[in-house]
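Before we proceed, please read the two lines closing this message. Report back on whether the structure tokens fit the sequence:
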Amino acid sequence: MDGFEMRVHSDDHGQHFHVIHKGKSINARFSFPDIELMNYISKMTIGAKTQKRIQEFCKTPNIFANLEKEFAKRLSTS
């Protein structure tokens, strides 16, 4: 989505995923399944409009299903 990528890492500290934009040095953590901004790993932040677009994008049925699959895969291997 517009240069952003979503990454699910191991489930070692709560279900969340990272939204990363390398060109803008953004690394934000969003909770799953409620898709709420938790905090930033980087110093760069996103605006409210971008945050809302990310949330809407991640809540679309096919993207949400992909995130669910990734979390299920990580839970089954832990």
About this structure: Residues 5-76 form one domain. The radius of gyration is 12 Å.
